[in-house]
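Entry for the shared binder. Reason: the reviewer on the internal report wants the predicted structure included alongside the sequence.
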Amino acid sequence: MARLGIDFGTTNTVAVIHDRGVFSVVLHQADTGAGTVVQDVFPSAILIDRLSGKQWFGLEADRLFGQRGPGPNHVFLPSLKRHLWSYAEGHSITSGHETGAKACDAAAGLEQYDVAKLLTGFLQSLADSIRASGVIDPAEPLETVITWPANANGAQRYITRKCFRDAGFEVLSTLNEPTASAIELADCITAGRGSKKDNREPSAVAVFDLGGGTFDASVVWIEGDEFEVLASGGIEDLGGDDFDRALLEMFLERFKLSDELLSPLTRHALLRQARSQKETIAGGVVRSLFLNPLDFGLDCSPLSIPVDAYFERIRPMLKPTIAMLKKVILSAAAKEPRVRTGPKLTIYLVGGSAKLPPVGRMVSDAFPDCRVILTDKPFTSVAMGAAICATDRVTYRDVFARHFGLLRLKDNGLSEVFDIIFP
């Protein structure tokens, strides 16, 4: 029976399927005027028509927003996951905060969109896309291992699991995103050596996971098929979205435009272009980043920003990730002395933002005695590790960051809610 590993990411969601011994990334399709578009990621985006209330998710949302561009009748939510950190029962997003990072309570004069309903709708669309890909039999259940940030609190974990189940997934297990990446790396090393895991010397892997909206760090002790998370930490509001904003701010400074004068959707269209330019850097060939404001209805001349200047802007933003990784490694070493005395510690760089050249340089400079490895699959490592976990080939022990609260019933016992007592 086929099983899935799913990485619900801030920018994109990735699903990997295991079927009869083979792992493969699920491909998603969208019909366009030019034909069918196929992608190995499902954008974590939602587009809402204010007039009709119609909602589009994933590829459709991303494509339609790109076609229609900024407009007063659209609400575009590019990063729903960022609204889950502060989730509580009844939290909603207001239409005036489409590109914000926090969930909002009711505000006069603005449409309200319930976070849980939006997430369930998004995940239902994801389930439909997975089935439409043809990789799983229509009669089979969507047995799934899901992942979340190591620093996710109890409320975020609760609503994520609940919405997956409400969307039709059978959640077999859950694990932290860095743990999933450690499992993927260990499996990759074993396959490359052609050796059995049981014969490999016990060792530690520090996972540096810099994604679209969050940063996670974990140290995982690997002994055969057993994975134990020794320490974990994270920054819930730092990732690729912030580096996109930093680049946009640099452009706006040179255009002498105020961010406050941009409509939310025009701003997001500019952010999409900034992200596109940022993603050209990874190969190391690009020397400048370009933006033509006339394409977005802004009366300014096109200009370029040197890549080195952009790197200087984001280096201070990356410093907290280095500090967090050091803290996590020290905590892990206090729990398991072999982290220091055993084989050289491996630092595994994963997540789409880990491809930025300053990341690898700063990590290598901060940890000269460690072996630093940049994943060859920054967008799929977490989902692949979750899929491996779904095969029951490994066992793991994790650590958690949770809220203390009560799970209670409402609607005459028909549904559950999580009430936070102590955050």
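Summary line for the report: The chain has ten helices and 23 strands.
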